[in-house]
Amino acid sequence: EVQLVQSGTEVKKPGESLKISCKGSGYSFTSYWIGWVRQMPGKGLEWMGIIHPRDSDTRYSPSFQGQVTLSADKSISTAYLQWSSLKASDTAMYYCARRITIFGVVTQRYFDYWGQGTLVTVSS
Amino acid sequence: QSVLTQPPSASGTPGQRVTISCSGSSSNIGSNTVNWYQQLPGTAPKLLIYSNNQRPSGVPDRFSGSKSGTSASLAISGLQSEDEADYYCAAWDDSLNGLFGTGTKVTVL
């Protein structure tokens, strides 16, 4: 059974650093991209970026470039999202998701499995 | 700020058909496939439709998707109370950035 299990709720102060995790199981972790999605309180989904655990190839949304860092440790089938200096505006639920890629005349890309989410609260 | 535009809300009575639109551009929907996600209250998003009109195993056939040009639609026929949720369209753009729609809240009256 494919599963993405994320780390637990975090409560941090502005300026602090944070690294949250997403552990994959039930499939070949190095065969699929892992994406990260932000959902601010009461708001919609925002695509943050994506990483391939095989070689850590990474793409960032222009909105999040320079604000966060994606990484992965394929030896333990885990992807990470980290901040070096949190802001109150980083308060949100963060989801990881596995991306399927099917190459063809038109390449198909979609997130088929999602983690349960990690709630990050940043408050002084 | 999303470039995929959805109506903020839609509603219907049980058994009715509800349609949600998703408007994009030639660099996203116009040249890439569209996916739809359902987010029930307090839960993670779930894949509902992929590649414009394909249903994953386990998704009821009352959910259907279509795409034409730079727009896509999700239809829910035979609306049920458990369909009350937020629905998001999604696509990739030609720069391989992921995009989500603005989201539509479906209410079952």
- Please summarize the sheet with the most strands of chain A: 7 strands, mixed
Q: What is the strand content of chain A?
A: over 45%
Query: Oligomeric status of the shown chains?
Result: heterodimer
User: How would the global form of chain B be characterised?
Assistant: globular
Described by the principal axes of the CA atoms, the overall outline of chain A is globular
Q: Please indicate the percent range of residues of chain B in DSSP E strands (runs of 2 or more).
A: 35-45%
- The count of helical stretches of chain B stands at 0
* DSSP, total strands of chain B: 9
Ranges of chain A where pLDDT stays below 50 over 5 or more residues in a row are none
Distance N terminus to C terminus of chain A? 40 Å
The count of DSSP E runs of length 2 or more, i.e. the number of strands of chain A, is 11
Please give a quick description of this structure.
The complex is a heterodimer of chains A (124) and B (109). With 124 residues, chain A is mainly β.
